[in-house]
UniProtKB/TrEMBL annotation:
InterPro entries: ICL/PEPM, MobA-like_NTP_Trfase, Nucleotide-diphossugar_trans, PEnolPyrv_PMutase_core, Pyrv/PenolPyrv_kinase-like_dom, Pyrv_kinase-like_dom_sf. Residues 308-415 form the MobA-like NTP transferase domain. GO terms for molecular function: nucleotidyltransferase activity; phosphoenolpyruvate mutase activity. This is phosphoenolpyruvate mutase. Belongs to the isocitrate lyase/PEP mutase superfamily. PEP mutase family. It comes from the Bacteria. It comes from Stappia indica. Its EC number is 5.4.2.9. Keywords: Isomerase, Magnesium, Pyruvate. It is an enzyme of class 5 (isomerase).
């Protein structure tokens, strides 16, 4: 009978309460990472941490208030609920001094258990609390009063594995090791599940001595914010059960926001910062947009996923021996192939379906998450036929396989209202080549949002207003009209030898409004060895 019970428990999902208890009690050192919002909680889980420290300092600072209990416990509960919803990790919350006496604390514990918060840490100081790193000789709570608070919390918790952690501030207050040990033992006797011993010295000597003297009376948690130079292995050898990285997500975000604001204030253009910030697709992904898309497919009418087509069927003879055993889309640029860099940009933008049209050395083409479409006639056909083989329904990005571009180009293409939009570099106007284009308006530095926007007149072979960089976007409607044009050309017998310039010129002449987004730099194509060298220098 006992064997069946054990199997049932093993097969049941382990609660967050139990997972936190197991982290504290296991022989291996555990690590909690600070979070202060639903977004940061998701990032902590994404990074691979096993638990979250919901920092009182960080939550307060995120809302622009001081870490002196200016944030009410009900506001903390609201923030914790978002964090708990956003992540599956167990959360240990910084409960300051318990928000009052034993009665306030036991109500807080009850509400935490209701929301699935796995544990709370309270410190033995006076309400309202003062941050441990501010001032000297901070007053401490009476030991018996604090023990009563711990007992009240343990009597109130509704889950047996809810963890109450007692934070000893004697070293912070300058009371010394003896007082710290006295308090730690008393709190363990009162039912505390673990002890945090805190210090603001730059070395860990007094922390290590405490661990040695306290032994294995209860799990010991360390917060090495000030003694960060101490090797983690030394803290592990001292017998610590858990380490908390207490406020570093918040501090990292402050520096990043300041750098971004300073750059925008100085340069007054997004070009200086766009490549250094997370793409919008990353924000949408962290917010769960993909789950909503899947739900929409399930509960609403079906829609085709966003896709991209990379045209990579040719060898690239100008690159000589480098393309003997692979097409040029697989040439490495700083350790990642041209195709791999495109796939990274597209994936970050939220593209789920990436189709690569291959021909020469097709078996050498590989990258995460792609599907291959073979153009068996790649030696005698052009880009138009390659596109025709892969083009389906829905919003589609089309790219040459031999280009590098900044990911923000994709967002720029989507900002235009036309159903087909091309990225054009005006710096190379006047150059002869198959991708030279004429537009209805030349490039201008005019930032007026109401100014008229340029459209494609056609591919002109030489001269014109710029060069198409080899990147375009078609909405679902635009992709459908592109499909019709390709089919018409196939019926006429003109598709096989056509490049994309011929297709787009034909559509523009027929009245299709094809938008042009001017991009000045931040891209390269790779046609020869000089191009490849410049691409490697630019990355």
């Amino acid at each position: 009978m006992q064997k069946h019970v054990a199997l049932d428990r093993a097969s049941a999902p382990v609660s967050r309460f139990t997972r936190l208890r197991e982290l504290l009690q296991r022989p291996d050192l555990a690590f909690l990472m600070e979070a202060h919002s639903g977004l940061s909680a998701k990032i902590v889980e994404e990074a691979g941490f096993e638990g979250i420290w919901a920092s009182g300092l960080s939550m307060s600072a995120a809302l622009g208030v001081r870490d002196n209990n200016e944030l009410s416990w009900t506001q903390v509960l609201d923030m914790l609920e978002y964090m708990s919803d956003a992540s599956s990790l167990p959360i240990l919350v910084d409960g300051d001094t318990g928000y009052g006496n034993f009665n306030n604390f036991r109500r807080f514990v009850a509400k935490l258990c209701d929301r699935g918060i796995a544990g709370v840490c309270i410190e033995d100081k006076i309400f309202p609390k003062t941050n441990s790193f501010l001032g000297e000789n901070q007053p401490l709570a009476d030991i018996d009063e604090f023990c009563g608070k711990i007992k009240a919390g343990k009597d109130t918790q509704s889950h047996p594995d809810f963890q109450i952690v007692a934070r000893v501030e004697a070293l912070i207050a300058g009371r010394g090791l003896e007082e710290a040990l006295k308090r730690a033992h008393a709190y363990a006797d009162a039912g505390a599940d673990a002890i945090v011993i805190h210090s603001k010295k730059s070395t860990a000597d007094e922390i290590i001595e405490f661990c040695r003297e306290f032994g294995d009376r209860a799990p010991v948690i360390l917060i090495p914010t000030k003694y960060y130079r101490t090797p983690t292995e030394k803290l592990r050898e001292a017998g610590a059960s858990m380490i908390i990285w207490a406020n570093h997500n918040l501090r990292a975000s402050i520096r990043a926001m300041r750098d971004t604001c300073a750059a925008l204030q100085e340069h007054q253009t997004l070009l200086e910062v766009e490549s250094d910030v997370a793409p919008l697709g990353d924000v949408f992904s962290l917010a769960g947009s993909q789950e909503l898309e899947e739900a929409e497919k399930r509960y609403l009418s079906a829609t085709a996923p966003r896709r991209a087509i990379v045209l990579a069927a040719t060898r690239g003879e100008e690159l000589g021996d480098l393309t003997l055993d692979r097409p040029k889309c697989m040439l490495p640029v700083r350790g990642t192939s041209l195709l791999g860099r495109q796939v990274e940009a597209l994936t970050r933008h939220g593209v789920a379906d990436i189709r690569v049209v291959v021909g020469y050395k097709a078996d050498a083409v590989e990258a995460p998450g792609i599907s291959l479409v073979e153009n068996a006639e790649y030696q005698t056909s052009g880009e138009a036929q390659s596109l025709s083989l892969a083009l389906g329904e829905g919003d589609t990005i089309v790219s040459y396989g031999d280009i590098l571009y900044r990911p923000f180009f994709l967002a720029m293409l989507e900002d235009r209202e036309e159903d087909i939009v091309l990225a054009v570099d005006p710096r190379v106007s006047g150059r002869s080549g198959r991708d030279a284009v004429a537009c209805t308006l030349p490039f201008s530095d005019d930032l007026d949002p109401d100014a008229e926007t340029p459209l494609l007149k056609g591919f002109v072979g030489e001269g014109g207003d710029g060069e198409w960089v080899g990147l375009m976007r078609a909405s679902a409607a635009g992709a459908a009209r592109l499909r019709r044009t390709l089919d018409e050309m196939a019926g006429e017998g003109s598709l096989a030898g056509a490049d994309l310039g011929a297709v787009l010129t034909r559509m523009a002449a027929a009245g299709e409004r094809i938008g042009v987004v001017y991009v000045t730099g931040f891209w390269r194509n790779v046609n020869d060895l000089m191009d490849l060298a410049q691409a490697r220098d630019a990355v």
